[in-house]
Design brief:
This protein has about 450 residues and is an alpha+beta fold. About 45% of the residues lie in helices and about 10% in strands. Strand 1 and strand 2 form a beta hairpin. Keywords: Hydrolase.
Length: about 450
């Protein structure tokens, strides 16, 4: 059965600060944008709590998904113009794959929850699984739109997200170590945070991308543009995504949701306005409808209400989150890790419940990794194509990338209330504050 591919009578464009115009040519893409599930992404921030540190970072998952679609569209155009398939199985680009690639690019983040990754950690949700559920469930508007292309089209699009789709070129466009998703979020996040670390030459990278039998490679002439991208990604993680203050707000958010969950489980919310939209998550029984009702604004509304809640911990954590009172932090190492229980006890001694007012938070990233068939989650390595068509893995010819390859970057921090660092006068717990402060020097636990 051939796909029903309907084109718009006239191309539609969306203005975008990163790509200038986002070009929509297929009716199915416009119909997907107009579904309620996709429009919900306007109400989920792309960078979660990072806007408490970088005040410009108010952009949404919606704008990012549109950008990933646009980069994928440009890749398809380049492949069709310069590397169209001549005979089946020649490893070049089959433009019949365009629509599934575009739909997967647009929808790749549709399953993100409110406050994204923080929410996932508390309620053990997986945004990629939810994305696949939303695409394949007959209950959703997205599924209804996709089925108008072909009955099995939703499963094909979900297969790209799940990395099970048979064409590796399509999968690598959306998910690899250099894909449309990463390229858009680096440029977009750099723009909105006001930083320059994430900038790289997108036009040049798209120009040197080429399909081959096993996926996507890059012309050797473009190797330096690819190096620049890897370095940009490394710097964005260090300077923006791992920022200790953003993580301090993330810890407050985590503890706030944890306290609400604990109160609910002990029947301590019955006399107060129930957070009805969160109950399915507290009870670990979540339908697609339940999941899609949550966004950042819903959580913020509950936090506003919880500022009047009789429980002092919930009330205080809600106030801290809404009023930007992040926990402070200090780095610890394997040598100082044994001090953390002691420090947590000191925090408890001055009147804070250590279960909600102390935390460890570890950020780690692998800037670039080579393929390891024995790894549980091996990454698609970046291949550089030589003049004769042979492939060389990037880190073997780039000393810059080689210096970052396989090196896990870790930043391990202990979080606690800011008041622990303030010199107290005439306080009953002066000794505890003083002892705590003796262990903090130059942002390190000693």
């Amino acid at each position: 059965m051939s796909d029903n591919i309907e084109m718009l009578p006239r191309e539609k464009v969306f203005r975008d600060p990163i790509h200038n115009y986002i070009h929509i040519q297929h009716k199915v893409i416009l119909d997907l944008i107009n579904t309620k599930e996709f429009q919900r992404l306007r109400r989920v921030k792309q960078l979660g709590t990072a806007s408490f540190t970088f005040q410009g970072a108010e952009h949404s998952r919606f704008t990012h998904c549109m950008g990933v679609y646009e980069i994928t569209r440009q890749i398809c155009d380049n492949f069709q113009r310069n590397y169209p398939t001549k005979i089946p199985g020649d490893g070049l680009w089959d433009d019949n794959e365009r629509l599934v690639a575009l739909c997967a690019a647009l929808l790749h983040d549709v399953g993100h929850g409110a406050y994204s990754h923080t929410f996932e950690h508390i309620f053990n949700t997986d945004h990629e699984m939810w994305t696949q559920n939303i695409i394949t469930s007959p209950e959703t508007e997205i599924n209804h739109v996709l089925r108008q292309v072909a009955d099995d089209f939703p499963e094909r699009v979900a297969g790209v997200i799940a990395h099970t789709y048979p064409n590796p070129q399509v999968v690598q466009m959306i998910s690899s170590q250099i894909d449309a998703d990463r390229m858009d979020y680096l440029l977009r996040d750099a723009y909105f945070t006001g930083t320059k670390y994430g900038m790289f030459d997108l036009t040049r990278i798209l120009r040197v991308m080429r399909p081959y039998q096993g996926g996507i490679a890059f012309d050797k002439d473009g190797m330096h543009a690819v190096e620049d991208y890897v370095l940009s990604r490394f710097q964005m993680y260090q300077q923006v995504y791992f920022h200790p203050v953003s993580r301090g707000m993330e810890v407050v958010l985590t503890k706030l949701l944890q306290r609400a969950k604990d109160l609910y489980e002990h029947n301590h919310m019955n006399d107060f306005e129930m957070p009805s939209l969160l109950i399915p998550f507290f009870e670990n029984h979540v339908s697609i409808d339940d999941y899609l009702l949550l966004d950042d604004g819903v959580l913020n509304t509950y936090f506003i209400l919880w500022q009047s809640y009789p429980d002092e911990i919930l009330k205080d954590l809600a106030y801290r989150f809404l009023s930007r009172k992040p926990f402070k932090s200090s780095e610890y190492t394997n040598k100082t890790k044994h001090l953390l229980p002691q420090l947590a006890e000191m925090v408890e001694n001055v009147g804070f419940d250590k279960n909600y007012y102390t935390a460890t938070n570890t950020s780690y990233d692998l800037p670039y990794d080579v393929y390891n068939p024995n790894s549980n989650k091996s990454r698609t390595q970046i291949e550089i194509m030589q003049d004769d068509g042979s492939l060389i893995e990037l880190s073997t010819i780039s000393r810059l990338v080689n210096s970052l390859t396989g090196k896990i970057l870790r930043d391990e921090r202990f979080y606690f209330p800011k008041s622990m660092l303030i010199k107290q006068s005439d306080d009953l717990f002066n000794d505890d504050y003083a002892k705590f402060q003796e262990h903090i020097h130059n942002d390190q636990i000693v």
